[in-house]
Amino acid sequence: MNRENRRNLYDTAVKWTKEAGLHIREKMANTYNVDTKAHQHDLVTDVDRSVEQFFRDKVKETYPDHRIMGEEGLGEDVHDLNGTVWIIDPIDGTVNFVHQGCYFAVSIGIFHDGEPVAGVVFDVMSDELFSALAGEGLWLNEQSLPRLAEKAIEESLLSFNSGWLMKDRRLEELVNQSRGIRSYGAAALEMAYVACGRIEAYISFNLAPWDVAGGYVLIREAGGTVSNFKGNPLTFLKKDTLLAANANVYTEITEILDGMDQQN
Ligand code: 2AM
Ligand code: CA
Ligand code: CA
Ligand code: CA
User: Fold this and answer.
1) How much is the mean pLDDT over the chain?
2) Which residues are CB-contacts of 185 (< 8 A; sequence separation ≥ 6)?
3) Is the model's pTM score more than 0.90?
4) Which fold does the domain 3-145 belong to in CATH?
5) 35-44, 180-189, 243-252: lowest mean pLDDT where?
6) Which atom of ligand 1 lies at the shortest distance from residue 94's CA?
7) Ligand that comes closest to the CA of residue 51
């Protein structure tokens, strides 16, 4: 894909994501249906489905040869990243959306033959749109963002949810050594915050490709590091663990976690 096509694809993804944001605001003004999925932490609404449908219709109409992998399953069953693939989370942070009416995002990651092209994460209620065009830069709304500066863990804010702390006590050491822990309940937003330097790392034990695809493109463009807990690159084809961080904080975190492993 040439540079002009990549730029056009990025511009289109940003435009549609803004439209999706307006659509969500309209839907929020009315009642919508909420269902539980796998367990009580896991909700889905009519709005999640209609936003995914919106992207599916737009992509199919404009780029019939592109494929879509979306959380709500309205796209294709995608088992490889050949050609152009849109990885879509129509609403990331559905529990926040339902309970708080804020702190949720639309997340889009576009890949071509496995390489990132564009990432868009839109915090609809705060009107913050984080976007990246691979190799060309990273923006918060119209403002270009710099690459991340080096930070020590002592001056870093980290983000993970409390359930993970109960599951893996090694995280206690990160609580001790960092400046503080935050937990926002929306993976795509937390990755966007790593990319713009509001927090230095985001950790999760179980995320799907649509949770991480948009944020991955942002963090990569910011010069941060993203992998699973084993240090392997994400495949965007299955659920996985995630360590997404400012590059040198990433190294410090892996040293702390590996050091704890050796003590056990
Ligand atoms: P979602 O809102 O799109 O489902 C919550 O801590 C974060 O984890 C959200 O980004 C949420 O995305 C994601 N997540 C991934 N799998 C989940 C699950 N099974 N239940 C709840 N949240 C999940
Ligand atoms: Ca969900
Ligand atoms: Ca999600
Ligand atoms: Ca979702």
Assistant:
1) 96
2) 93, 95, 96, 103, 161
3) yes
4) Fructose-1,6-Bisphosphatase; Chain A, domain 1 (3.30.540)
5) 35-44
6) 2
7) 4
Indicate which atom in ligand 1 lies nearest the CA of residue 38.
Answer: 19
CATH code of the domain occupying 153-262: 3.40.190.80
* Residue matched to tokens 């990319």: 195
Q: Is 52 in the pocket of ligand 1 (CB under 6 A)?
A: no
Longest dimension (CA), the chain: 56
Nearest CA to ligand 1 atom 9: 186
